[in-house]
Design goal:
The protein has about 350 residues and is of the alpha+beta class. The chain has 12 helices and 18 strands. It has helices spanning about 10-15, 20, 25-40, 110-115, 120-130, 170-175, 180-185, 190-195, 230-240, 250-255, 275-285, 320-325; strands at about 45-55, 60-70, 70-75, 80-85, 135-140, 145, 150, 155-160, 170, 205, 210-215, 220-225, 230, 300-305, 310, 340-345, 350, 355. The strands form 5 sheets. A 5-stranded antiparallel β-sheet has the order 1-2-3-6-18, covered by helices on one side. A 5-stranded antiparallel β-sheet has the order 9-8-12-11-10. The longest helix has 15 residues, at about 25-40.
């Protein structure tokens, strides 16, 4: 990233720290945000829909700006000096019913965890959680402009396709290159009996052509163009746009602030013991205290600027803590990537960021 703001650079960076930002008037915030857009956003980007918004989650509030850069929504995150990140048993003990295994489905991963950790006592669960999360640390996190949504790796957003009506809204010329392939894949069987059991696939993927992901509630697909890439290639491509990926510190701050809670919504897993899955789903789907949205379906990893991944691909096992630990702010999957490994959009997502630093 390049340094802006001239000789007053450090003063402005201090002003963008959350401890100061939250106390400013709306007019002061607008002036500071205008400077960010002028000095840190590529002049090739189309800037639109600048909106001052109030976000809140688990009692943490942040008034900040949303902005569209080339029609993609970004949110400004104030920086944080001395941010406390990592779990290390947290600040409060977790209730034992989080790891109730009476309804457990003993998948291979559950069996492996039991073999390695026991998972019978509070102490054994404590060890497991600590080894599944990042270590306690204090870091300075720079102010950032962060994409509201993650994208599949190697993909560029084209638009939305209605599976039932066949209508597409978006970049029509690009979509036309593989329109027939998509329509053919989504056409129900002509045989009546087979058509009774037809379901729209969760995704369609043709290497170096397109990736389509189903939005089940809308019976529509989000359509992306696709080009094979590695983490290294992705970062170089982003840097040409004056962007990058967040590192692990920045990612943990972006998802959970510095609350020291296991999840971005707090330490709570259950609101109702009988319907815990439905209740927690409502919380998982909410934007966080910065207005960012994170995947809650645990079907893809999100990559960082490091080899360390976030989120996970998880097969539900009906043990509350196992099923939701991968959504923890500090969770570390037992898998890493090489900078030169080709990454599939079916398995990995990424999130664009503009880091405001020297």
């Amino acid at each position: 990233m390049y340094k802006g703001f001239g000789s007053d650079y450090m003063k402005v960076i201090d002003a963008l720290d959350w401890s100061n930002w939250k106390n400013y008037s709306v007019s002061t915030k607008r002036d500071l945000f205008s400077q960010i857009l002028a000095y840190y956003v590529s002049p090739l980007k189309q800037v639109s829909n600048i909106t001052l918004s109030q976000f809140e989650l688990a009692g943490v509030k942040c008034e900040t700006f949303e902005v569209n850069l080339d029609e993609e929504t970004f949110v400004f995150l104030p920086g944080k000096k001395g941010a406390i990140l990592g779990w290390d048993s947290g600040t409060q003990p977790l209730p034992a019913f989080y790891w109730d295994m009476k309804n457990a489905i003993y998948t291979k991963k559950v069996q492996d965890y039991q073999k390695n950790y026991g998972l019978q006592t509070t102490e054994e669960w404590d060890v497991f959680i600590n080894e599944s999360t990042s270590s306690l640390r204090q870091v300075d996190v720079a102010p950032m402009l962060v994409a509201k949504y993650a994208l599949p790796v190697g993909c560029s957003y084209l638009g939305e396709f209605q599976a039932v009506t066949g209508e597409f809204v978006g970049t029509v010329d690009e979509f036309a290159k593989f329109e027939e392939q998509i329509k053919q894949a989504l056409t129900p069987p002509q045989n009546f009996e087979d058509s009774l059991f037809f379901e729209f696939p969760n995704e369609l993927f043709h290497e170096n052509q397109f990736y389509a992901k189903l939005n089940p509630e809308l019976e529509s697909y989000t359509i992306f163009s696709h080009q094979l890439c590695t983490q290294e290639q992705l970062r170089k491509s982003l840097q040409k746009e004056v962007m990058d990926l967040m590192n692990e510190d920045q990612w943990e701050y972006a998802i959970g602030g510095t609350t020291r809670r296991l999840f971005r919504w707090g330490n709570e897993l259950l609101e109702d013991h009988s319907f815990w899955k439905n209740q927690i789903h409502k919380i998982v789907s909410r934007p966080n205290m910065f207005g960012l949205s994170f995947a809650g379906d645990l079907k893809q990893f999100e990559i960082t600027a490091d080899q360390q991944l976030k989120l996970d691909q998880w097969e539900y096992c009906q043990v509350p803590l196992l099923d939701y630990l991968p959504l923890s702010t500090y969770y570390r999957p037992r898998k890493s990537i090489s900078p030169f490994e080709v990454l599939s959009p079916k398995d990995y997502t990424y999130r664009k960021a503009i880091i405001i630093e020297a």
